[in-house]
Design goal:
Helix content: over 70%
Number of domains: 1
Distance between the termini: 15 Å
Radius of gyration: 21 Å
Strand order of the largest sheet: 1-2
Number of helices: 14
CATH class: Mainly Alpha
Strand content: under 5%
Order of helices and strands: HHHHHEHHHHEHHHHH
C-alpha cells in the first residue's frame, strides 16, 4: 500500500505537468486573440525570470543586466528580421546575448554584493544610452521598424523557449553543476578551496541564462512593430525579474514561474483599470508580500503541505 502511495505521489506531478503543457499548446485554437497575446507577455516575463534564477538563484548574485540581454535580442530581430528566417534570427539573438554575457561575466563576476549589482545595471544603461546616441547622431533616426509576425506564431515560439528554459533549469539543478553553484551561494571561499573554478562556473552559467533572455527578446520584438533603445533596454526588464523571482521564491523550480505569472497578470490588470496609479498599487502589493511572505509563494505552498501532512498524521 505504501509503495502504491509513493508511486502515485511521484506520477501525479508528471501527469499534471503533461496536462498543463497540452492545454497551453492547444489554447490558441479555442480562445480569443487577446488571451493569446496576454499569455505571450506572461511567457516573456516567465522566461526572463526563470533565466535570471538559473544563475542568481543558487549563487545569490543579484544581476540587473537582464535588460541588456533582452534588448540585444530585440535589436537582433530588428536588424536581421528582414533578411533572415525567424528561427535563425531568434538563435542569433540568443547567441549574441550569450557572448555578451560571457564578456560581462569575465569583467564583473570577480565583484560581489552591491558592486556586482551596480555594475550589471550600469552595463544595461550604458548599452541603452550608447545606442540612443548612435541612432541620434550617426544614423539620424531613433528606433527601427520590425518585421511583424502573427501572434499565434509568437505564442508558440515563446512556449518552446519557455519549455527549453525549464528543462535546462531542471538539468542544472539535478547535476554537479547545480551543486557547485549552490556551494558558491553558501560559501564561495570554501567552494574555491575544494577545487571548484568559481569564476569559470559563474561565467558560463551567467551566459546560459542570457541566451534565453536574448531569444525571448528576438521573438517579442516582432509583436511591437517599432522599437527604440528606451523600449528594448527598459530598466523594467532588469528589475521585474528580480521582484518576480523573490515573489515566487527561488527554492523550487516552480517558484519563479509562479511569481512571474501572477505578477505579470497583476500588472496587466492594474495598467488596464488604474493606468495612473498602477505603479503605486504594484509597489504596495510587493511590499506587503515581501513583509508577510519572506520565502515567496514557494514558502506559502510548503507551509500548506506541512499543515496538511500534520493533519493526516493526527488523523492516522
Amino acid at each position: 500500500m505504501d509503495r502504491v502511495r509513493v508511486s502515485f505521489k511521484k506520477h501525479v506531478p508528471l501527469g499534471l505537468l503533461f496536462v498543463t503543457f497540452v492545454l497551453l499548446a492547444t489554447i490558441p485554437f479555442y480562445v480569443q486573440p487577446y488571451l493569446v497575446i496576454l499569455l505571450t507577455t506572461i511567457f516573456m516575463y516567465i522566461i526572463i525570470t526563470v533565466s535570471w534564477a538559473i544563475f542568481s538563484g543558487p549563487t545569490r548574485y543579484i544581476s540587473l543586466a537582464s535588460a541588456a540581454f533582452f534588448g540585444v535580442g530585440v535589436y537582433a530581430s530588428a536588424i536581421l528580421g528582414k533578411t533572415l528566417p525567424l528561427p535563425i534570427v531568434i538563435a542569433f539573438g540568443g547567441l549574441v546575448s550569450f557572448i555578451l554575457a560571457l564578456f560581462i561575466g569575465l569583467l564583473t563576476l570577480r565583484l560581489r554584493g552591491m558592486y556586482f549589482i551596480i555594475f550589471t545595471f550600469g552595463v544595461s544603461e550604458l548599452i541603452r544610452h550608447s545606442l540612443l546616441w548612435w541612432e541620434a547622431n550617426i544614423t539620424g533616426t531613433v528606433g527601427r521598424w520590425v518585421v511583424v509576425v502573427d501572434h499565434t506564431t509568437v505564442y508558440y515560439v515563446m512556449l518552446i523557449i519557455f519549455v527549453m528554459a525549464l528543462l535546462i533549469t531542471y538539468l542544472i539543478r539535478r547535476s554537479r553543476l547545480g551543486l557547485a553553484l549552490r556551494s558558491i551561494g553558501e560559501y564561495e571561499e570554501s567552494a574555491a578551496h575544494i577545487g571548484i573554478n568559481v569564476t569559470a562556473l559563474k561565467t558560463i552559467t551567467f551566459a546560459i541564462s542570457a541566451f534565453f533572455m536574448g531569444a525571448a527578446g528576438a521573438i517579442m520584438a516582432t509583436r511591437w512593430t517599432y522599437i527604440d533603445p528606451h523600449i528594448a533596454f527598459s530598466p523594467l526588464f532588469s528589475f521585474m525579474p528580480v521582484l518576480m523571482a523573490i515573489f515566487g521564491g527561488t527554492g523550487q523550480i516552480y517558484g519563479p514561474v509562479l511569481g512571474a505569472a501572477v505578477l505579470a497578470y497583476l500588472e496587466e490588470i492594474l495598467t488596464t483599470k488604474f493606468p495612473y496609479y498602477y505603479m503605486l498599487l504594484f509597489g504596495i502589493i510587493l511590499i506587503v508580500v515581501i513583509l508577510f511572505l519572506p520565502h515567496g509563494l514557494v514558502g506559502l505552498v510548503q507551509r500548506w503541505r506541512k499543515g496538511g501532512s500534520k493533519r493526516q498524521n493526527a488523523n492516522a
